[in-house]
Amino acid sequence: MFTGIVEEVGxxxxxxxxxxxxxxxxxxxxxxxxxxxxxxVAVNGCCxxxxxxxxxxxxxxVLGETRRLTNFAQLAPGDPxxxxxxxxxDSRLGGHFVTGHIDLLGRVEVFEARGKDHYLRVRAPDGFxxxxxxxxxxxxxxxxxxxxxxxxxxxxVWLIPTxxxxxxxxxxxxxxxxxxxxxxxxxxxxxxxxxWDS
Length: 198
Description:
mainly beta
């Protein structure tokens, strides 16, 4: 379980296909010092299991399915990625409950400065906007954000300077894929009300 409050931005060192899985190696200053083998770390919002680490680096095994369903397929050496260690029971809960289970890939439609503020609009695949409500929560590349508007299959958020400074969102441009995780409560309500087939 995570909160969507990014701890630091790491950099991709390598992302290669290994015999057993895809291997993702990252460079980071803070996160590798506080992990153990088997720990969970959110990478661009996707919960991954620590398979190796050392001073200033951390490594994960990635399933082909994970690579296919997230923006990991676009990762290249040097790319910035948002990192968050799993939530501790004795820590403050900022953001909102984020599982690290990516629902799908969205696409940036608009990202621009509007006065002193920054506006980000993302298109979700058809039909998924039902999980979005005005002033509700959404995680975009693992960043806990508040929904400012919903129009059709798009939603928009406003970004504060701190978010631009401490996450990878400032590097996004129209057309980029972003990992989306919708509010868990909305999905359970839909399931319990008979909205899902299974």
